[in-house]
Every structure is written in structure tokens, then in C-alpha cells.
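## tool: complex_structure
## caller: assistant
## args:
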Amino acid sequence: MIGTPLLEVEDLYVYFDIYEGIAKVLNGINLKVYEGEKVGLVGETGCGKSVTMKAIMRILSIPPACIPKGKILFKDQDILKMGRREFQRIRGKGISMIFQDPMSSLNPVFKVGEQLIDVIRFSQIAGNKGVFRYLLKVWDKHSQREFRTKALSILEEVKLPDPERIFTSYLVQLSGGMMQRVLIAMALVNGPALLIADEPGTALDVTIQDEVLCLLHGLVKRRETSVLLITHNMGVVREITDRVYVMYAGNVVEEAQTKELFSNPKHPYTKGLLASVPKLTGGGISEGIKGRIPSYTNPPTGCRFRPRCEHAMKKCEMRPSMVGVSDHHRVHCFLYNEK
Amino acid sequence: MKLANDILRVQNLKKYFPIRGGLFQKQIGEVKAVDDISFLIQGGEIFGLIGESGSGKTTVGKTLLGIYRPTEGRIWFKGKDILDPRVNHSRWFKSEMQIVFQNPTSALNPRRSVKQILEVPLRVHLIVKNGNYEGKIVELLEMVELPAEYMAKYPHALSGGEKQRVSLTRALAVNPSFIILDEPTSALDVSVQGKIITLLLKLRGDLGLTYLFISHDLGLVRNVAARTAVMYLGKICEVARTQELFYNPLHPYTRMLLSAIPVVSEEEEKMRPAKVEVKGEIASPVNVPKGCNFHPRCNYEMNICRKKVPMMVEVHEDHLVSCHLFKGNYLGIHRYGWFSRSCKRRTL
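## result:
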């Protein structure tokens, strides 16, 4: 781990007020993304990956959500305490994101070019208000051509064939792979320091997914962008990231360097998860992990994995702390002792 | 390979969907969803069918069931031509062949309880005659490892894995011998997937079922199927024993597909073919490329590929490839009645 942390999530709790009661979804999340680092956040459906992402992007709807405790520091500034306009300056230029489903995150009635230019233009005037904002808007009319060249160059950079044509096409005229590329272009056009990718390529076929991920990998490497990759696909994490956080039921249960995690998983959940991925080398299918994810309104006390864990002990009714088993490898489990 | 034991034979199956347009809804084109495929499934076997979205996997499944009527080609199930309406509409055929759909949420009626869902096949197929549906349903639920209380529940109260179990129970209710599994676990998490697959394998042993396993997850097919066919744009491009297919992929498309899978261990990385550069995207089935349908994306493209559709040839024993790069025995399945007189001939 080199340099300074770009993004730091400290002890983040997110609750939702729903009909059944209060769903305690995030239960003290800690994560760090350093400059130029590619970090993975893996977990199954309903483990709180997307809630974490939404909290960082400040797109959680409050209420029903509430954040009773925790800090999200971006370049040492607390995002949660910022004003709306102040955060608008960060969104897009500082942090930007790629959404999961390109089909539903782009507008079908506007041309790709218009949407791309909107992103560029908005980032220029974001955070300003009143007369100043108006003047900037008027000034924009003159820089329309500049925006266009910028948009075309980014479309070219994501290796879209014939950027001029893509620029004037609607969403329906593009294939899934192309749409995903447009989304990547949109996320990178303002040169963000941190890119949050929420399941990129999950909606695509394996071959196209591979192509898109390779492209993304190359682009962020060249631009030295930090990446927080959120996914349920263990294979994708292994191919792309440097460091991984594994999430289960609103807790980070294990963090390690990618190589270390895949060769030497420690937490019973990580072990079970890795064993249940069908292998190309054969060897049959494992039974998976028994039981299912607990209800968030009434989660088990202490370790939330306890009811499904085969090593569960009396001690597990208390909350375990993150234990460092080796350099940069920490586990949220009583089975291991601090090294 | 013995031919006596085969349960399903598909010969030159084609399914084109018409595209209509203009003032009088004239046919202006067609979607070639399934384009001339032949295969054979043996009794008790798990036959894997893999391919990307839009390659026609699901259309094959639906055509076999008789949901779609094929444009051309013939299908024999247990020696009977299922395109004959007397067979197709018979209760026998409908109870012998069943399907489990990809998305359990949309496959189950949200307004009906599990009991109501499972009662229908039992009533229609006259499996329960004395009106004691509950007894039979409990028995069926036990088979898929669900407790009897689940009878009263509605689909929204079940988790994804449980819904898929109910969906499977509905298929099993009529005592089928052949089940089409259309991506049975693609909507589920990996840790749940394992349980469903183990259950499917156990049921196959207990009830002597045959599966057509349709999936886009190559790792899963590797561990489940005995033989696997790879589909691309409505055509089968390679068929082999699963082990053979994964350790020795021949068709350039199979290689591309295998090299693109993200893997989780070093052993897998070693066996995976070297990274192949992915060129372009799957063509539209409305406008299928001439000659070999894979040639615009192929790294070994030759002149002949643009002109001539490759034939299915047997390169090794039980390893068939449809590619101009390979020479082997042409088994003649496309032209000749391999199912009738020349039964000795080894086939797909």
C-alpha cells in the first residue's frame, strides 16, 4: 500500500426505516482506497455492496435511509458533512462511477453525444450559483465546439469504432458492449481521481465482458485513476484488482492483497464462497454455504455469519474485531489471533 | 457409443422467426435463431449447451418442448416424431418432457400459493386420482428438500433458491424422464447455486432423469455435463465430451470463449487457453455472415471461410468441430438418415 489514502470509509453505519422495523444494513464498514490502487469489494446479493457505493456517492435517499455513525473521507474531507453544492464539485471530477446496467442508466431519448456533453458542461458549472452560474452557462455556448472535440476524443479513447457516428446515435442503435463503453467514457471524461465501478460488464457476455474489462484496466492504468470495483464475480476481482474487501451481511469480513486472498483465504465465509465457484478444472460442485443471509431487521448478535458458520463458538456472540493475520491481511473472526 | 440408448435425436433443426413490416405485414426478413443443428442425447446423460446470449440456446429448448414449431428439421423423442401433433399434444409427451426456466420469479404465478402451483400438473395429468393432492405435494416437496409448511407460502415469501426448488418440483410432479434446464442457476448466488446443482444431480441418480443443461456459465457446465455442445449464432460449432472440450478446445470460438472466462485459481489459469483477442461482437441473427458465421471475428480467417459453410467433422473420437481448419471424417448426419439404416455409424 503506497501513498496516501484517497478515500477512507470509517466505521460507517447505514440503517433503513422500513415497514418491518429498522433494517441495520451497514454494520461498521471500514475501507480505504489509496492513490492509483485498484480495490475490489465482493459479496453476494444483499450484502450491502451497493448501499456502501450509494453512501459514498451520496445518492442514498434519506429517509428511509439514515447514517447514524461514520465518516467518509475523500482527500481528508468528510463527504457526509459537505453541503450539496460543495459535493457537486467532487462528483464527476473527484469521484465518478460506472453503473451496472448501461441500458437503464443512459437516457434513450437523447443522443449519446448530447448526454456526454451534458456531463462535461455540468462539471464546469457545478458548485456555482446565482449570477456566476448564469454567466458560466452563457459562456458555455461559445465553448460548444470545444466540448464536442473533448467528447469525440474520449469516445475514441474507449475504442468505439466510428466515434462521429456514435456521437449522433441513440441508445437503441448501440449494442450492449458499446453502451458499456459509452458509460465508461462518460465516467472518465472529467478525469476523476476515483472511479467506482458497480458490476461493470455483468449484463454482458463473457467475451464482451473480457474486452470491456481489459479496456477499463488499460485506461485507469494510463490515467492513474484509483478504482473501487464492486462485484459478485470472484473471477473478475482476481483479474483486475490489487486488494480485495470481502463483505458479508453489512460487515467487511476479510481484507487482503488479491493474490493472498485467493491463495490463502482465512474467513470461513470467504473459504465457502471460493469453494462454491465452479472450477474449469473440474472436481465437481461444492454444496455451497448452508443457510441464507440473515434478516437485517433482526440480525444475529455478534458475528453475523455465526448461524451459518461451522466453527461457531460461544465467543462468536460478541462482535469480533479485525485481526491482522499477516501484512495487509485482516480477518473479522475469532478463529485467528493477532500476529 | 451405443445408439440403442438414445432418448432424443435432433436432425437439421431450423427455427426462423419472420420479421413482418410494410402496409400488408409482408415478411421482410427472418431471424435465424436456430440454423441447422443436429445432436443426439443419450438416456441418463447430462448434455450441456453453451453459448452467448443470442446464440439460440433457449430457442432450441423451447423448440424441443413443442412451444415453437420448427421451420425445418425433425425431432425424435423416445423413437417418436414429436412434430406429429398426435404426439406433441398427447399427455404422454407433455409429462415426459419438462422444463425449468431461467428466472424463477417470473416462472411462478405470484397470486398462487405453492400448493396451488403444484396442484395443477397433478390434476391435469391425472396423477392424483383420489383427490389427496396434499399428500402427494408433501412427498414432492420432500424430494427437493423443502419442508411441508411451504405449501401455504406464496412465491414472494421464498428466496431465489427456494423458488427455483418449487419450479423444479412443478417439473418433477408429472414424472418426466427428460428435463430441459434453461440456465437454472443464473439468477442465483454462487453459494446457493451449489445446493441446487447438488440436488439436481441427486435427483437424476434417484429418478433416472436425462438433462439438457443450457447455460452460459462454462465453469458450471464443465462440472455438470458429460458432453457439451457450443453454439454460436444458431449453429453448433463444436461438440465433445466435456473434459475433452475444456482441455483441448479446437474451434476458434470455443478458444475465445474459454480464454475470456475470469478464473479464481492458478490451476485454472494454466489450463485456460492463451488470451485470444476478442474481435467485434456477435452478428445479428437477421444478417448472418455468409460462409462460416464466425469468420468476421475469427483470428484464423481464410478465403474459404467467407464462401463455404463448414461441415461438422469428427476430428477425434466423439469430438466434432465445424471449422475449415480441421480435417476429419464427415459423418454425413446432415444429409443421410444416420438414424435409420446406417445405425452403426457414430454420430453426434
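## assistant note: Residues 1-44+55-78+220-348 of chain B form a domain with the Rossmann fold fold (CATH 3.40.50.300). Residues 190-207 of chain B form the longest helix (18 residues). Handing back to user.
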